[in-house]
Amino acid sequence: METFMIEYGIGYQGTVLHVAEGDTALAICGNAIASYSLKGGLNKPLIWGPRFGISASAFNPLNNWIAFAEKGLHPSVLVYECGKQQLRTQLAGIAEVEVSALAFSKDGFRLLTVSCEPDFKLCLWDLQEREPSKLAEGSSDWLVEFASFNPASSEQFCISGSGNVSVWTFEKNFHRTSFLCRDLFARPYQPHCHSWSEDGQRVYIGCLKGEVLMFDLAFTPALEAVEDDKSERSFRELVEDDLRVLISGNLSSPESSWGDGWQVLRVSQTMERVASICTGELHVVIAEAGGRVCWLSLPSAKSKGNSKEDKSDTKADGADLEGCTTGSDFSVEGDIDNNDDDGATVSKGNCQSSVDFRTVENSAKAASTVVYSVNLDVMEVTNLMYDTDQTQLVVGAASGCIVVIRINKDLLVSTLSGQSGTAVTENFAAIQWRSAYHYGPIHGFATLADGKFVLSSGHDGTVRVWEADRGKELSRHCFKSAQLCIDSHEGTSTAVTGSANGSLCMFKVDSMGRSAIVSQNKLHTSSIDKVSFDKNSNHVIAACKADGRLYFLKCGSSDLDELELIGFTTLDDIILSIAWDLPTAQGKDDAYLLVSLSRGEIVKVKVPSCRASSANLFFDNKWLNCMSFRTQVPLTSISVGKYYLEKEKVERKVVWGMGQDKKLQQYRIPENLQGWSGSSGNPLHSHFNMPGHAKPGAALVLHLKTSTLITGAEDGALQIRDVVLDPLRQPQKVVDVQLYDGYLGGITAIVVAEERLFIGGANGVIFSAEAPAAGLKLASAAPAGKPRISIIPERTKHDSISDGDISSQLSMLEKYQRTSGTRSAVALQEYRSEVKKRLQKIKQEFHDLVDKNEKAPDLEKLTLGELIVDMDLECELRSQGQKRVDGVREQVIKDNYKKDIIAERIKHECWQDVTEAGKHVWPFVQGSEVPNFPSHKKFISYTRAAHVTKALRIIEMQENDYTKELKLIVSSNMDNSLGIATAPGSPHSMGSDIVPDGDLTGRSKEDAPAEKEQAIEPSAQQTSIEGATQKVEEAVPSRRSSIITAHDAAGGKSVIEPETGSNKGATDGSSSLHTPEEDAEESEALTAELLEKGPIESVLYNAFDLTTSKRKRTQRFLLFRQLHLIREVFNTKFKNFEENKESIIEKIEEMYLRILELQKKLGLKDDFILPQLENHDDYESAFTVKDEEVHAPKPGVKSPSMDTMDRKGYDCSKPEETF
């Protein structure tokens, strides 16, 4: 990277000014701490910030140290020595997001850092050693905007902002450290800024509504007041008492303190916020946000002791707001709120004074008087500060203005010490110097006189001419609307600007830098965002970003005094940037323009040389030979360059652009028509695609003579790359510096003026720098001819022009259309007059015929129908008309009949068959509406099917259980029939009686051996098995039939009756088949009933049991039934909630009537917002079918839309497949 040196800066951001020696002040300028000259000299940056900006700064004149905090997460505070510009120390861990305030102690060895939300951390640092140490750490509950140390002690400081003020004290005794906070309760006032007295005993506080307060730190509250819990009364209640006395007209001496060390010095009638305050000898200086600076005298001990004499003094007690009339500066407005200790607010009524303020002013002497005031004519004052000897007051404003006021200290001190309170007859304060800087973003630059002059246009509506060498403003023009773009023509010393109100303004600049407006025309109804001069053909192109319009203008004379509109065209997209295409080697006369659109397309437009032939001056895209090609991303800024290939002997043109993806891209301009693929083609591949900035931007300059690309973006960084027109080498970044705050818009404009580079930012600051060695330095060449000096006509010389009437004027296009339309209007008027004469002639002839008919005898008179000339033609026309009317009527009836049928079908299927209509319940104040679940009649059939499905599922479950038990019975009986012994207590044991060992069949032990010896015949064994199997098969169907019969008898209800004794099996004891006992049957019947009345979850299949389509269908119906039950429960609760809402509204209305009666008795009036039912609650009329929603096809023709509608919208007979 090469070194890059900033020569000077132009602009002020409204940050805190620190007055230094030698008529200089230090303040934040972009991403640097700059030294501002208070005499109009150059402003030189001293120290650059390390990251994306500087948030706060502090300066100590004794050590010549300056501390500033960087922006970003977890910022650090850097402490520099200004003289050597060396870093002394760096503090970390002071904030999470941003530092809001910094302050040095008077000796410079203590530093206070205050952070903003979310931590609100206060850190006290000791900088006496090389390695800083943190002495104490605390936190506040509000945002701190101002911080300062006690000038008499480095152990005490004050912070204020957000309507609060507090004093912190640091004490360290041996190993014990205390960091105490004393909150100064100033309610009902809202403190904003503060300043210490010279002895450090008092704090002067400026409030948000113009009040000035004084707090005496030497005051110590009495112990009994603290014990009685009356520590707040001395300020709150006594303020109320004094204001009540003020309203009554009997004001006591204001020198009597309000208690707790408080005293009100000034109460403003204008209620203008006190932006800054500083103290001097026997006085206080305040700066209001509106630009008014006031000097206030301070109450002395002598005035406090002679309060009785002051009461009788009814003469002028002080200068008024402007120092020319007498009177006190008190005002009383609004309500007084008494805040108790528990935080409750008790309203004391509306204390609006109806007393004449002149009576109040003459009844008492104010605690402080306005000795003198100066109106600076600036807005948004942010700070003011005295120099060391108090002979110079420096005021800074957020509008980019610095004002230096020279003070006659001897006259001021003599006035305050000798005759305090009298009006000043001689001015002791006068404005010595005022800066001239831009306020807001810099939108464009232009150069004239070979880089001698630089023109800038800003968002503040000013166009300024600067001397490039010294940065001095030579002339200025002010407009009411923002000047969004600017370009110049070197040959004629002319510049043109486009404004936000759609006007174009042309300037002439002479050899001394004086400028004058030569023409101003309204071009468009919206803003003009881009403007460009064609240096060869004297054309001017103006582009409107919003609607994509391109205006083509031509200078009427060689001096470019007037602009003539020759036409316009419209591109169907937002215009991001424009650039002139370079002429080819053949030197054709046609000029072409490249336009970058937001859809990622570059359009090549031929600039017309003559006026459009159409009446509205519109150029067709075909006439302009519009061609385009796609880019990979939209390019916010473009510039055209070219290079020459020696081997191929071909000249190639390229486009450099800054993409919205923050990358720099180079595209080769296609040489043939096939390369211009249009908006429907594929994007071209970029020749170079390099990483650019951290944020998007639109500042790009391609310097052709040095093959250098200069870019700036919203991140505030300036980057310079060289060798950008060599197709075989990758461009190298030679400069990358952070010039601006990356959080406030960054760089907005760049221009190259000879060997100097000008950069404009979104904060109104302009930097001037020399070109780097490898970049922009060029050998000075002799001019081709004698430089032309522009002479400004006397008729156009003026300093500024107001464009307040431009918005109501006609644009250039409207003027031309009105002029060209006059000819066609005259011809149309002539034709209309001729036709009118012919109609009048026919009308007159008809009236003559009617008059003759009236004068004729009765028998010869004709009726009005008979007056028609051709009766046959009349009948024919009537019949034809009647046929057409009948045909149209029949067609309308058919169409309406078809639509009515479809509408009735829609209503029948989608509304009338709905058992539970769809409804919504709206909340009272906030939230979203809650809908219910509509229910259709088709769900009834689904419900019945679900009931049957559930009953069948219960049957299936009972059969499975019963089958398992029968299997046990069959196996047991088969064992008995085969003579197999069953162990007592085994699963095959049927009875509860225990059979003795060896007597398995109930016989004696003696018969057992004989029985064992007998062989069992195979035929008897087979017969026994078949008989047992047959009885089991008979038992299972009988049980199933009994359950189904019980279900049918219940009318479709799934109630399973207990089985009768016929299903219990044989009772004669001859068969070996045994059935379950009666208590088991009763237990099974009870289980079935519980399943029927229980939830659906108890009968659902397991996921592993869904192996067949039958079970899946059964599971689907069961899930539908479960979903339907959930919806029914929700609808029931929904209905109850709707009824509760109506009852609550009725109760609120009753309470509202009672409140109105109480207010009427008390004489009060207040409005309440009553909750009401929404209009959507009328559900009966909520369903309508519009004609455009019903499409009736023609007879015999099948409409695809109707087919789709029948399949999707009206086929309600089929149930849904998913639930």
TrEMBL record:
WD repeat segments: 435-476
PROSITE patterns in alphabetical order: WD_REPEATS_1, WD_REPEATS_2, WD_REPEATS_REGION
Swiss-Prot/TrEMBL keywords: Cell projection, Coiled coil, Cytoplasm, Cytoskeleton, Repeat, WD repeat
Biased amino acid composition, Basic and acidic residues: 306-318, 1000-1015, 1204-1219
Key word Repeat present: yes
Coiled coil (residue ranges): 825-852
GO biological process, one term: cilium assembly
Region (Disordered): 301-348, 980-1085, 1190-1219
Localization per Swiss-Prot or TrEMBL: Cytoplasm, Cytoskeleton, Cilium axoneme
One GO CC term, this protein: axoneme
Acidic residues: bias regions: 332-343
Classification via InterPro entries: WD40/YVTN_repeat-like_dom_sf, WD40_repeat_CS, WD40_repeat_dom_sf, WD40_rpt
Biased composition (Polar residues): 1060-1074
Similarity section: Belongs to the CFAP43 family.
Protein name as annotated: Cilia- and flagella-associated protein 43
Organism annotation: Adiantum capillus-veneris
